[in-house]
Amino acid sequence: MPDLTAVTKTYSNTIWQSTPVSPAVQFCPRPMKRVSNYLKMRVLGALEYAQGQSDLARYQAVSNMTFLDENGHPCQFTWRTIQTWWYHYRKHGITDPPCRADKGKIRHVAPEHLLEAIEQVMPEFYGKKYNIAEVYRVCIQKGLLQRSKIAPNTFRRAVNRF
């Protein structure tokens, strides 16, 4: 890891801030699931002023900088993360990847087909205790559903939703 104790330059006319950080601070002091678009855009804005002849050199220069998020926590990102953000920004115009068109939909098996399969196997469970996994297993054994078309977790989600 590069020496982060050296003083880094700050530019007053930019929207990003660069602050020196002691080596004891890790890349992020808190677990971060999602980085805000505001912080991503500040990191990408730093690419414009970064020193380096190639894109890779600029990514690596920005990866050595420390940015403060909205809560004041210092964050540092790897050059590969910055490269991925730059790619998404160039391709989509925003820093978030586009949402999937089929998000939340069952792709291979229609809910009506699931209902028919479940109704055909339910008489076997008359008077017995059963759970969703057993219903799924019997549907597979009878050939009403195929494992390659619908996974057990997808089956469970569909049954709970409908």
Strand content: under 5%
The main pleated sheet reads as: 2 strands, antiparallel
Structural class: mainly alpha
- The percentage helix is 40-55%
- Chain-averaged pLDDT: 81
Number of domains: 2
How widely separated are the two ends? 51 Å
What's the helix count? 6
Globular, elongated, flat, extended or rod-shaped: what is the shape? Answer: elongated
SSE order, one letter for each helix or strand: HHEEHHHH
User: What's the gyration radius in Å?
Assistant: 26 Å
Description:
The protein contains six helices and two strands. The chain has 162 residues and is mainly α. The protein folds into two domains: 1-98, no CATH class; 111-161. Strands 1-2 form a two-stranded antiparallel sheet. Helix 2 packs across helix 3 (79-92). It is elongated and about 70 Å long. Mean pLDDT is 81; it is low at 4-16 and 19-26.
Which properties best describe this structure?
162 residues; mainly alpha; two-stranded antiparallel ribbon; 6 helices
Write the layout of secondary structure elements.
Blueprint: H1 37-49, H2 55-63, E1 67-68, E2 74-75, H3 79-92, H4 111-121, H5 132-141, H6 152-161
Antiparallel strand pairs: 1-2
Helix pairs in contact: 1-2, 2-3, 4-5
